[in-house]
């Protein structure tokens, strides 16, 4: 009886390469399955909330009328600014422009009129500005 013994020599490098390629193949298969499942395809079209354009609303501060201009596209608020701010208004009400810039920055970042923080020094002015922005956005909203 003669037994023929066969010896296989495996190098550690070959085992590591095989394991790495097997893991990569599994990851690739899982990635393809999740990407092409019929129920999970996401068409990321932003929800249309506004009619695109520039909308204005006015308010009065001490017999001086100011206009707030809100620029929106279909899904977000792009910018908010005063459209007819002149030097006399800026001199009479020095806190109006900084309050507007702060409020506009918060609204553009959060895309919401909720939880707007403003300084207690300009609480009344800030509330009037927020109300004017709300009125302008009411005109922009899709019904």
UniProtKB/TrEMBL annotation:
Organism: Claveliimonas bilis
Transmembrane region(s): 15-37
Entry keywords, A to Z: Membrane, Transmembrane, Transmembrane helix
Name this protein carries in UniProt: FMN-binding domain-containing protein
């Amino acid at each position: 009886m003669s037994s023929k013994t066969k010896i296989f020599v495996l190098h550690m490098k070959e085992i590591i390469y095989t394991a790495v390629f097997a893991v990569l193949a599994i990851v690739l298969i899982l990635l393809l399955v999740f990407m092409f499942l019929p129920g999970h395809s996401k068409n990321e079209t932003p929800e249309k909330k506004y009619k695109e354009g520039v909308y204005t609303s006015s308010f009065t501060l001490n017999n001086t009328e100011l206009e707030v201009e809100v620029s929106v596209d279909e899904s977000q608020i792009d910018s908010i600014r005063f459209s007819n701010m002149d030097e006399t208004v800026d001199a009479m009400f020095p806190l109006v422009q900084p309050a507007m810039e702060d409020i506009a920055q918060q609204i553009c970042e959060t895309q919401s009129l909720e939880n707007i923080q403003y300084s207690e020094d300009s609480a009344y002015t800030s509330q009037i500005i927020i109300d004017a922005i709300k009125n302008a956005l009411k005109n922009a909203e899709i019904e």
